[in-house]
Amino acid sequence: MRVAGSEGSRQSDAVARACASTVLHARSPRNAIRLVIPAMLMVLLGACQSTEPIRTDVAFETSPWQFGRTTGTRIETEHYEIFTTLEDRVLIEALPGFVEGCYQHYRSLVPPVRQPAARMQVYLFATRGQWEAFTRQFTGPRAATFLKVRNGGYSEQGVSVIEYVAHQVTFPLFAHEGFHQYLHHHVSSEVPAWLNEGLAVECAGQRWGLKGLKEFDAWYNPARRNALSAALVSDRLHTLPKLLRTHAGRVIDGSSQSVATYYAQLWALVLFLREGEGGRYRPGFERLLTELGQPGIEQRITVDPEVVRAGPGWLGEALFRHYISDDLPRVEAEYVAFMRARFLGGR
Q1: What span, in angstroms and rounded, lies between the C-alpha atoms of 167 and 35?
Q2: Are 160 and 121 in contact (CB under 8 A)?
Q3: d(C-alpha 219, C-alpha 162), whole Å
Q4: Domain limits, the chain
Q5: Residue 274 and residue 278: Cα distance in Å, rounded?
Q6: Tens of pLDDT, residues 49-81
Q7: For residue 155, how far is the Cα from the chain centroid?
Q8: What is the rounded average pLDDT of the residues 115-127?
Q9: Quick one: 12-216 is in which CATH superfamily?
Q10: Residue 52, pLDDT score
Q11: Which residue from 113, 109, 289 is spatially nearest to 185, judged by alpha carbons?
Q12: In terms of pTM, does the model score above 0.85?
């Protein structure tokens, strides 16, 4: 989840300094150990054949980190700085390979247009209480909104904050929030929510083996598939115009069913734009991903004044109309037919 309008131009190092007086005391002792190990995890997401993981050799450094009265671990990789209160050494040593594997996948989805000056920061907490305490301090007056997040995960000001729940929950969530973080630092902080969330949900589709992460599989997302099937059967889909204009910050105040349907539909929308209608929309979609972070994109596209006058979220709809199609009723009919064919067997 990325809450729209929350990131702006503030950088993660400024946030870290603001919080440093109580919880962000990272230590770098002289005996910090540099390690190069295989990224190894147990089977997390069901029975899969064991193959080589995406990243096998990842260099990283570890050092103690203090969060309140809890001594945790700081992990530094090529692109990330991870702060965690986890105690399981297998999990801790698996994190570097996982995050760097995610990073390579993100780059394959949306090409970077800039390089951040510092490593991206991730906070992974072992308990809900620790996650809530950090969230209250980190997000200040907006904490009430973030504390509504189920299973504890969000990206704010370019920082990912995750609550460890269980392997099969936490690692897809980690990859989801990490994608928001990647866009913020490497592409743009103003990516429309339908695209930002749709691609992030896609990143949660992962297949694991005994040696770790085998591959990202956009179609492998049982929770989203189930939510989408239920919404189709009960005829409670969000309309395409609503999907293009709204964002997670608005949706999260709704029912749990509405929230689940929102994320599932955005996942299906990304799949549709790549594979629906014989690939008709794929060229435009890929061009959008390539040009997404280029400066002044909103000035370079053709925008109907009526779209702007319709209110907030106009850029998300305008980009869709420019790169995909201006005929929203037709696309919506094809999109719904695609979902019914793929997730309900055409019913």
Answers
A1: 23
A2: yes
A3: 24
A4: 12-216, 222-343
A5: 9
A6: 333 346 557 899 999 999 999 999 999 999 999
A7: 8
A8: 95
A9: Collagenase ColT, N-terminal domain (3.40.30.160)
A10: 39
A11: 113
A12: no
